[in-house]
Amino acid sequence: MSGRRDQQITPTADPTLRPLVGRQPLLKVLGNTLKRSTRKTFFLVELVGEPGVGKSRLVTEVANQARELGMATLAGRAAEFEQDAPFAAVVDALDDHLESQIGLLTRRLPLPEARLLSSVFPGLTIDLPQVPIPAGAGGARYRLHRAVRTLLEVLAESSGLTLLLDDVHWADEATIELLDYLVRHPPRGQVVIAVAYRPAQVSARLRTALSQVPAGQGTRVTVSPLSQKETEEFLGPGMSQAKRRRLYESSGGNPFYLEALSRAENGNGNPLSQITGDLAEDTLRDVPDAVRSALQVELGQLSSKALLIAHAAAVVGDEFEPAAAAAAAELSDAEALTVLDELVGRDVVRIAPTPGRFRFRHPLVRHTAYTSASAGWRMATHGRVAAYLQQLNAPAPQLARHVVRSAGFGDVDAVGVLTQAARSVAPRAPMTASYWLTQALRLLPDIPANTGDRIQLLIELAAAQGVTSQFTEASGTALDVLERLPAQAYQQRAMVAGNIYARVTRLLGRAVEARALLQRELRAVPAEAIQHAGPLHLRLAVEAIWSAEYAESTRLLDQVPTDAVPQPIAYAVAALRPMPAIAGGDGARGLALLDEADRVLATATATDLAPWLDAFTWLCFSDLLTGRYRNALPRFERVVEIARNTGQNYILPPLLVGQAQAAAVLGDMDEAFTLTEEAIDMARVGGSQQSMAMALGSRSLLLTWSGEHTEALRVAAEATEAGGLVPEWWGLRARVAQAIAVACSGDLDGAAADEVCDLLESVQRDQPMLLFCCEAMAHLLAGAGRWAEAAAWADRAERIADPALEINRALAGTVRAHALTGTDPAAAAELALRSAAVLEQAGLKLDAARARLRAGLAFTAAKDRVRALPELATAADAFAACKAKSLRAEALRATRRLGVRVAVPGGPKQSGPFGLSPRELEIARLVLDGHTNQQIAEKLFIGIRTVETHVSHVFTKLGVTSRASVGRVLGPALDAHDKG
């Protein structure tokens, strides 16, 4: 955005838009979506199509329809040449409206949130007292996301809100992160967000973010080119049929291309050679050459001053004020206004929604105006715009995009602007910060006088790269810092080596390099400075855990003087201590250290935990390895929240994997699948093979538990390929998951489960993973009558299970019960029941159900039908609740063999009206009673995403698209159902 001036002008009216052709079906869909939003719920609308196909026009129509419904309507768009401006599209949409709503916002927004918003929206100039933002509230980025959500809720309170964001394929990373947050945590109330983008240019991150919209709250509309008949209607009867056909064939039915080509045919046809310019920046390679030429010819028909202003305005921004364009073109304000009349008259620019501003007819027009100006002239013009904005005291981020395109090597003032801009946006837009820091370093001469400044910029750059999954770049930058830092700068060297270089280098699969550098740095620290070596001790302790050197890990942690190091490091030491003991086989000491960690961390804030978040990830997994799933789940949730708050996306895949494991074992398979999907998406974006192996291996296990054996095999193969042959925990977990998938698909001999379990046991005593493998293999072998082999797996399970860990002993008891069924079925049944009781007490629904199934099978083998049937029924119900289809089918088959008729899975079901399952029917009744998804989740003690999935299934089975329609369709059938 350009700077503001006190004086505003009232330009001439916009040209009349062409009648809308061929879009009535789309308008109907969009209109129905807006009407559904009157239920006071969030909706996301995606308008998807190629450049020029008419997405922006449909955005305008959506705005008109929303206004007719009485909704507040705000629109903004991202711009091709402003992709380094944080939150540009959102600021474009909201900023001017906020100026008129200051009174309301002052009353309704909490002061800390208002302060955060004022740092992003210049229009929110509220005179605020300096209210401190709580340190434990999370990172600035996440607090800002919550503040924007609150802002949207406030703006929607009276009559609803439609927020329209066009061209989001050009959105900056900060805007994408915000959209990701708003989709996952929708605003409460009648809020519709409509985004338009080009599918071929949209980033993987944005595509993933938009895909997470809750079931029933999103609409995706594909905007296609016009047909030949629609093209003829679009061009009108005043053109010959032959010309209309030729234009259709040249444009492919694209409305904007049709307009550009028809303008060229109707104009004077100035030769293309009259338009000079460097087209090296042309990124719109999918635009036909004929259209590109037509746009250049159109600009070539302008007067010299009008063309100059068009070039200058394209440099200023997507939306511009006349005074800024005048300064860029070195014309007076009066001259610029006169020339703008020509540009408006020729429909090159149009009046913007904000009074006193203009914008180009279409981004393709601006792109052509920008790239057809010579490169040297553009560089000088960006410099003039930067100088103009500085006179207006514009903030550094607003200056930065012009400075970066105009400053020359050695421009210290430019370095200062870029550094200030990067620091101001780093907490909320680290990707933009890393770009501006890179540019500042490019301009800063690498001479002794600048060494200190350069090192500081490099440290900030490495940190920004590290939290935005630029691992290769972060590793290289950190090495550059270490080469420049003095040998005696122990504290800085330890932090860069331990908390940046080693962390990201491991994620790149180069753990040996990371460990060697850490050891070299630690050896260089003298005894009197050992308090500065905490980051080195911590990171080396983590590396020792990865390589199964548990005594070494404990030794390194013991060397940290916790009373002399910063508090976050002391907390990290406490969080890491349990894992070496647990993985090393000392469960009793591990439990004691877990209790000690709980005590030490009781008062720790998010700010304390954030610098060493991977240490607290190990603490979460320590809970899993000891069977403390109920403890693990809220701990995972807290650390995941902090990771999101502070932008540490690199750590999210393993966190989500662990959280999914806890959710699955506790019986929420839907939530577990959702978490692994996100983990896989984030691992793909981050490019870490370690994270991919963990996420895919977890997914394979869930598929096996659910009975989807073919898909489990496919995913497991991908997981092991990502894990490679590295003999570390994350890769071996994937290989164990593959062995289980192979065995459960029917190939008991080809699974090689004993070999991979031997490897995992030698590297990391992941007792839950190993015990699950033992249980699965013993169960399958028992079903095949191979009792001796089942007994061998029971022996392994009893050796693995730590005597101090009751849950793991109970899991081993289930394994022994499998093997014992062949020789002493009555004893096997009693042992399985004892295991089930312990597992049920701990909330491990899936494992308890497996124990109940074994009890039922053992009672059957003992000819005790009376005791077998209730155990099989309990197991079948539990498996149904846990979505474990193949195990439920096994329990039902065993029941039928005892002479009891039961429904066949996949056959006719005992269900409610319209085939609703009992859980779906229960949730449908709550929907009818007016409960929100959140209220249903709280009432039934299940996850919000589980509710969303069930509601989506209800809608599908009833053939409706709204909660209001549920009563109309289901009500009569429900009355008949209840009457029997």
Put the structure in a nutshell:
The protein has 980 residues and is mainly α.
Distance between the termini: 66 Å
Give the mean pLDDT: 83
Helical segment count = 49
The dominant shape is: globular
Ranges where pLDDT stays below 50 over 5 or more residues in a row are: 1-16, 128-139, 268-285, 906-910
- From the alpha carbons, calculate the radius of gyration and give it in angstroms: 32 Å
Give the spatial strand order of the biggest sheet.
2-3-4-1-5
Structural class: mainly alpha
Number of strands: 8
Fraction of residues in helix? 55-70%
Beta-strand content estimate: under 5%
Strand count, sense and barrel status of the largest sheet are: 5 strands, parallel
Keywords summarizing the entry:
single chain; mainly alpha; five-stranded parallel beta sheet; three-stranded antiparallel beta sheet; 49 helices; 8 strands; 64% helix
